[in-house]
Amino acid sequence: MVFHDVTYARRLERELSYHASHDALTGLCNRRQFELVLEQALQDAVSGGREHALCYLDLDQFKVVNDTCGHGAGDELLRQLAARLSTKVRESDMLARLGGDEFGVLLYGCTPRRAYAIAEELRNVIREFRFSRREHRFQVGASIGVVAINSGSGSVAELLSAADVACYAAKERGRNRVHVYQTDDHELQERRGEMRLVSRINRALQEGRFRLFVQDTAGLSDDARPGYRELLVRLVDRDGGLLLPMSFIPAAERYGLMPSVDRWVVANACRLLVEESARDSEGIWAINLSGQSVCDEAFLEYVMHTVRESGVAPQRLCFEITETATITNLGHATRFMNVMHGMGCRFALDDFGSGLSSFCYLKQLPVDYLKIDGAFVRDMAEDPIDYAMVEAINRIGHVMGIRTIAEFVEDEAALNALRGLGVDYAQGYWIAEPHPMAADDAVAATRVPGRC
Fold first, then answer.
1. Residue 326 and residue 304: Cα distance in Å, rounded?
2. Three-state DSSP class for 146?
3. CATH 3.20.20.450 domain residues, the chain
4. d(CA 379, CA 208)
5. For residue 55, how far is the Cα from the chain centroid?
6. What residues contact residue 200 under an 8 Å CB cut-off, 6+ apart?
């Protein structure tokens, strides 16, 4: 007869079970376990008619701790804060670390009003918490999203998504506050739509489902240089439809995806321009860049490397940055522009006149083109104020040796007015509609209504 000592096996089994359901850093339940218990609470709400609540906590200013004292300090802060929060929730409730600096709290038998009060208590606990590391002393806050769990809550994924959106709304309203999700909140519905778009954008990046279109301009002055063409990005959805920039760029900007999109554009634009140079050796090709990308030092290194490796002539590349993004991030924008200008690339300030109209900064920036905001161009033939704005921007640009491009030219009256003012280029649907840059993209996709 063979005897087995099952004590060790059982202890090992318990340890494995614990580690599978708990966060190694804080000792709290992990996301996997939290979602399992959340599913049970949801089923209880549906079958038993009971009401529960979910709180989604995201720490504010946590990155400052990591950046100042290192990730070890950040981990210690999370451990201490988790221990503090554990003493503030009821035994019947569940506190979990969902990942990074995010926590979840499941409140059983809790109305939205009571859940809001508890969330405020947790927010105050976090706000009053102080973390010391060497000579540094830190104060963090928390943005908290609250969502009711009832018979109409949908799936666990939908619950977490709603709580995440409410948490984001709390951050947008100034951070360190609580926001309760309401199904009829149009702003939150818009955020949920953007968050769904984020996964579509990420999949499109992974699967290479972006396409470049090009929109030509018309030279209006006798000495206008060779053609200026703007490259525009489109997202090809899985059903073959084309999403225009305004359908996905706001979500990409809000969730920090623009540097990845811009990298794709730069890499593919350089590749296609090398192929195009056999047919057109002089034209200028413009690439739009976001403020996020311009502020990213790694993105600058990427663009420098890509331009060099591709073999494209730098003087044929023009990077378009909006006036607002440039002035808002002036230090980063100036460095980016100076470095790439030094390589031979050109720069255009896009949507000029739309907000800041900062003529004084033009003296500091290596700008080759001013793109006059289409809001002034569209009705300039009938509106004397719009006409005066276009005239002023064009005149100052020329005094400074900067070429001017008028956007949104959509009728002959506007075109004639621009020609009379001596604007260098006109761009818009009256001149030319965007068309696929690569020949093999000319068929393929059905356009979703909209412009640009």
1. 19
2. strand
3. 197-447
4. 39
5. 24
6. 235, 237, 248
Residue 219 and residue 183 in contact, taking contact as beta carbons nearer than 8 Å: no
Confidence of residue 16 (pLDDT cuts 50, 70, 90): low
Average pLDDT over residues 209-221: 93
**Residue 289 burial class via C-beta count within 10 angstroms: exposed 0-12, middle 13-18, buried 19 and up:** buried
Residue 447 has a pLDDT of: 32
395-436 tens-digit pLDDT: 999 999 999 999 999 999 999 999 999 999 999 999 999 999
Q: Three-state SS across 271-310?
A: HHHHHHCCCCCCCEEEEECCHHHHCCHHHHHHHHHHHHHH
Which carries the bigger pLDDT value, residue 189 or residue 158? 158
Q: Quote the mean pLDDT of the chain.
A: 87
pLDDT tens digits, 226-283: 689 999 999 998 888 899 988 899 889 888 899 999 999 999 999 999 988 767 767 8
C-alpha span between 50 and 426 (Å, rounded): 63
Domain with CATH 3.30.70.270 in the chain: 20-183
Which architecture does CATH list for 197-447?
Answer: Alpha-Beta Barrel (3.20)
**Parallel, antiparallel, or unpaired: how do β-strands 284-288 and 317-322 relate?**
parallel
Residues whose CB is less than 8 angstroms from the CB of residue 108 and which lie 6 or more positions away in sequence, other chains included: 41, 52, 90, 92, 93
Q: DSSP secondary structure string, 400-415? A: TT-EEEE----SHHHH
| Bridge partners (DSSP) listed for residue 54 | 106, 147
Say how far apart CA 111 and CA 104 lie, in whole Å: 17
Quickly list DSSP for 306-371: HHHHHT--GGGEEEEEEHHHHHHTHHHHHHHHHHHHHHT-EEEEEEETSS---GGGGGTS---EEE
Residue 425 tokens, joined = 């280029």
**Could you say which architecture CATH assigns to the domain 20-183?**
2-Layer Sandwich (3.30)
For residue 377, give the nearest of 357, 400, 358, 353 by alpha carbon. 353
Per mean pLDDT, which range of 153-162, 178-187, 240-249 is the poorest?
178-187
